[in-house]
Design a protein that fits this description.
This protein is of the alpha/beta class and 231 residues long. The protein has six helices and nine strands. Helix 2 (49-60) crosses helix 6. It is globular.
């Protein structure tokens, strides 16, 4: 199918995200210490099925005109071979820090502060001296500045899909943030007469009535689907 379309829009959902052990899962009260534990755990997880699936996606899309929207915060996609300039992660990630109070639009790379953090020092905002937190959805005040440059590239790319043969491939996208991938993908498929939507999900694979003739609904684990279908 990839060879039949001019442009490929890939949506990666929660079904691709690395699962944390029970003791590391999100709590009601935010904790930077817990987020650092999660980040360290993610970095220890090598060559998982999700890693291999990302590599297969990168290989399959290598010579294609594509863009990727991901809801995942684990950053695995950036180590897959997929072009970083063709990826947008609107839910943030564990690679960057922001001010607790969002006193400025500045975002800070975690690696630049890693040494002091490992010494037990709390990272602080250089402007207001408040503690820094991860730049991701889940913190009390999430700053969107980190992903906006890529989001602007994404919207420009979408403008070029009109009247092009567009394949929208949705992998493991649920209803957690439907306004980011699920609903926009449906709308693009509906508007573009040359578009087709392939929705792969364990449970929420159903296609809307309006798109039954323009979509493929596949009830399967998205990671397993990629490992089986991308050769």
């Amino acid at each position: 199918m990839l060879d039949e379309y001019d442009m490929i829009l890939l949506g990666i959902g929660e079904g691709f995200e690395e699962e944390f052990p029970e003791e590391m899962k999100q709590e009601k009260e935010y904790s930077l210490e817990k987020d650092i534990q999660r980040k360290n755990y993610l970095e220890e997880q090598k060559n998982t099925k999700a890693d291999l699936a990302y590599q297969k996606l990168a290989e399959g899309l290598k010579n294609k005109n594509y863009f990727v929207v991901t809801l995942c915060q684990d950053d695995k996609i950036y180590h897959s071979g997929l072009k970083k300039e063709r990826i947008v992660a609107p839910c943030g990630s564990y690679s960057f820090l922001q001010c607790t109070n969002v006193c400025s639009s500045d975002i800070y790379h975690f690696e630049e502060m890693k040494e002091s953090i490992e010494k037990g020092e709390s990272p602080v905002c250089p402007h207001c001296k408040e503690t820094l937190v991860m730049n991701r959805i889940g913190v009390p005040k999430y700053s969107e500045e980190g992903y906006l440059p890529q989001w602007n590239l994404y919207t420009k790319w979408i403008q070029g899909t009109l009247n092009k043969k567009l394949l929208l491939l949705e992998l493991g996208v649920g209803m957690k943030y439907p306004s980011v991938i699920r609903w926009p993908f449906e709308k693009m498929c509906y508007i573009n007469e040359k578009a087709r939507l392939v929705r792969v999900n364990d449970y929420l694979h159903h296609m809307t009535e309006e798109l039954k003739e323009k979509g493929d609904s596949i009830q399967e684990n998205p990671v397993e689907f990629v490992l089986n279908q991308f050769v």
